[in-house]
């Protein structure tokens, strides 16, 4: 059976948390880094994440699972496979070629969508993905992040009227 504690153990075993001097995607400086790219390329970690999220949405009226490129796409794919829900991939920006879509996958008007992310600091990239879904007719019903750095993302989501649900927080990891 999967659990939050098992996920924490896997992340520790795989040395996903690094100490040193880092600049985060948000531009903030940090004395630690959560290397989720390493985590989401490990099949056992990815499977555990997908099972934990699927358990949380079991029995709910969810039509699609979405993740912003790049880090969340493997997570969203794993959740899609585990939950049997269709996948949406949210680009950072529209491409100037091909279909020029911001959202890959079929988003229908009023689809109930869950969004997933690997790590949140301020929540900016995930909020942009949520806005893209909402601007294209979808309803974001839940938002999940594997690791919340506890640096304001949850509060930013509350301001937007959405609850961000971390699987684990940095404090839980370091306990």
TrEMBL record:
Q: Boundaries of each Phosphoribosyltransferase domain copy?
A: 39-156
- State the organism of origin: Methanobrevibacter thaueri
Q: Which family does it belong to?
A: Belongs to the purine/pyrimidine phosphoribosyltransferase family. PyrE subfamily.
NCBIfam families, per the entry:
pyrE
Quaternary structure, from the entry: Homodimer.
| One of the Pfam families matching this protein, by short name | Pribosyltran
Protein name (Swiss-Prot/TrEMBL): Orotate phosphoribosyltransferase
Gene expressing this chain: pyrE
Its catalytic activity? orotidine 5'-phosphate + diphosphate = orotate + 5-phospho-alpha-D-ribose 1-diphosphate
